[in-house]
Amino acid sequence: MNTGSNEAGEVAVASDGSQVDGTGPDGAARDERGLGSRAPEFVKARRVLHLSWQVGVFALGLAVVVVGIVLLPLPGPGWVIIFAGMAIWATEFVWAQLVLRWTKRKVTEAAQKALDPKVRRRNITLTVIGLVVVAGLAGVYLSRFGIVMPWRIEE
Fold first, then answer.
1. Predicted TM-score of the model (pTM)
2. Less Cβ crowding at N or C end of the chain, within 10 Å?
3. Using CA atoms, how far apart are residues 114 and 147, in angstroms rounded to an integer?
4. Beta carbons of 54 and 36 less than 8 angstroms apart
5. CB count in 10 Å sphere of residue 88
6. Above 70 in pLDDT, residue 137?
7. Distance between CA 40 and CA 45 in Å, rounded?
């Protein structure tokens, strides 16, 4: 890494041409951060403090993940909360960072696959067929039983 000057406005440059501030050689921002702890440096410098920091991050992430798991069968954003807990863990643990990277990659692949014209056409066709079947069943039900209000108002 080239850190040749202390003057303001200059940027340290790595051997591959990328800048230390997280931008690549073309100046575009890189979203891939290195693996490892994101704890402040004064916390990393002290072993006991760093261990207690990790225990706290794990406990907080665990609490958030448990809330997400509880919300899975209930109406609510269960999966979003679970991934939020994983993101909390990913601030400190490499295994969580790897899981989140894998999940992001799979979600991106699924989104690209869903935007494929053949897949979209198939999904639209299946949706239309399903709506026609539901409308037909509703028509048969209404022709047989009619619309009956669930209350009786005597006039």
1. 0.51
2. C
3. 39
4. no
5. 20
6. yes
7. 9
